[in-house]
Amino acid sequence: xxxxxxxxxxxxxxxxxxxxxxxxxxxxxxxxxxxxxxxxxxxxxxxxxxxxxxxxxxxxxxxxxxxxxxxxxxxxxxxxxxxxxxxxxxxxxxxxxxxxxxxxxxxxxxxxxxxxxxxxxxxxxxxx
Amino acid sequence: xxxxxxxxxxxxxxxxxxxxxxxxxxxxxxxxxxxxxxxxxxxxxxxxxxxxxxxxxxxxxxxxxxxxxxxxxxxxxxxxxxxxxxxxxxxxxxxxxxxxxxxxxxxxxxxxxxxxxxxxxxxxxxxxxxxxxxxxxxxxxxxxxxxxxxxxxxxxxxxxxxxxxxxxxxxxxxxxxxxxxxxxxxxxxxxxxxxxxxxxxxxxxxxxxxxxxxxxxxxxxxxxxxxxxxxxxxxxxxxxxxxxxxxxxxxxxxxxxxxxxxxxxxxxxxxxxxxxxxxxxxxxxxxxxxxxxxxxxxxxxxxxxxxxxxxxxxxxxxxxxxxxxxxxxxxxxxxxxxxxxxxxxxxxxxxxxxxxxxxxxxxxxxxxxxxxxxxxxxxxxxxxxxxxxxxxxxxxxxxxxxxxxxxxxxxxxxxxxxxxxxxxxxxxxxxxxxxxxxxxxxxxxxxxxxxxxxxxxxxxxxxxxxxxxxxxxxxxxxxxxxxxxxxxxxxxxxxxxxxxxxxxxxxxxx
Lengths: 128, 510
Description:
The complex is a heterodimer of chains A (about 130) and B (about 500).
Chain A: E1 4-8, H1 12-24, E2 28-32, H2 35-45, E3 49-53, H3 61-69, E4 79-83, H4 87-97, E5 101-104, H5 109-120
Parallel strand pairs in A: 1-2, 1-3, 3-4, 4-5
Helix pairs in contact in A: 2-3
Chain B: H1 6-16, H2 28-37, E1 43-46, H3 55-64, E2 70-74, H4 79-87, E3 92-95, H5 102-160, H6 169-199, E4 208-210, H7 212-222, H8 224-229, E5 233-238, E6 245-247, H9 249-266, E7 272-280, E8 284-291, H10 298-303, H11 325-335, E9 339-344, E10 350-357, H12 361-369, E11 370-371, E12 374-375, E13 386-387, E14 396-400, H13 402-413, E15 433-438, E16 448-453, H14 458-473, H15 476-482, H16 486-499
Parallel strand pairs in B: 1-2, 2-3, 5-7, 13-16
Antiparallel strand pairs in B: 4-6, 7-8, 8-10, 9-10, 11-12, 14-15, 15-16
Helix pairs in contact in B: 5-6, 6-11, 7-9, 9-11, 12-16
């Protein structure tokens, strides 16, 4: 069965691009555009993985990660962080928050698939 | 000196004697003109001249000659007027016809000191403010640029992958050009940010013991497609048994990536690139990236690492980029304690070479246990041992799994605690590692973390143990002391500390 990925991204074009790319590569997708919606969609859709932008309205990606952790049936969903923010500052935060992979924008399609593959196959692959 | 009264001018000239060279003007207009024509050290200013009266004289002079210090001459002994002149742009004032008393000179000197200090503080604050604004601006701009760039890149990738229908040959080629250019643009944005960080001293380095081979493999893998597109053959050779280096693996990957990226850019179709890592002199590991490109002229070889350097024209390179890549490489290598340069290659191309220091436990130990030049009063030791038998150790079971182990090590080793052993990057695949912490081996000052490998069957166990041994055996110095009884262990640590040059009289404090 196709795995379901939740894409949390506030920019409509980037969100659509990610979703189209993932669907084109055999995944099911759900989308959210801010921190609040991210939680409600995650509850409803129970995705296998979340691709999460850091710069979001209504609380950034790390706020979303903290909230996910506090909800029992969402706490173990692996998260891949994507960001346009400064890597030097964001990477350590992502590492601390327990993100499973970290990708810089513009996200390369193949890199994203590679990371998703690794995370979904359960490889112990925390952010390096 | 602007002074319309010849008697006053003569008086000042006599007072100053031969110490200053005086140029005389009688009108403000004349003085300003003269100031523009000559290079004066200061302007002595009478407030009341035919073409200007009072404070306005100072204001006009300060406005017209902003670089010239102004000293006002007053005939009235009026502190208030003097102060107003200073506020209007003069640096100081003198009372004509009366040399200042000693007390006045002292007061003036104090006032000048205060003013200079305030002015300097203001300049510094202003500079910091601008720096901060520049950083924020660049950070903001790069963030905002990346978002639309993301959309361009993603949709071009989607088209190219045929997700929305198959492209014909020309369409595919053109779309590929979009993808390639969006990547280039992303790299430029990243470079600008890096340079800004380097300038403001915010380039972060997370130095740790680092194994070389995966770094080289990773960068080759990352740029494989890029090279394949130009039919460039990329080979890599890592000398066997290279010691660990002390480096930031992300940053080092960035340097290798930049160099390889450049090599691909400059090597013509069908050429070749060689990566090499080897033991170099002076406790360093050397890295070479050799290409079969056009080479770099001798005069350019030093210059290439300068910011915004654009090499001599190569006809095959219609576009040169920002010229920041090698500058960033130099910054990153230097900050990791290495050196970078370029040599001509026998093939006619170039060899970019850099060195990175070997991981040296003693040196790091010295840094960790020292504070302000003396040994810290208490030091925590972390000992990591492996038991391959299946008995559970006594003590507190902290956590399970390799991430937990890494967390513990990172918290203690990279945190602000007094810790002497750097992190071991253990590759524990099965996640069946138990950390047992106890404090009994060396008393209250010691934390001993023992790792026990609990595997479900014998094969898994020995597999796991082998992996851990491999990691540990790279710590030669550590292996040596691993089995020592506590008192000898302390002595050995003390020896290391001695070797690192710490004040010996504090040794007993361990």
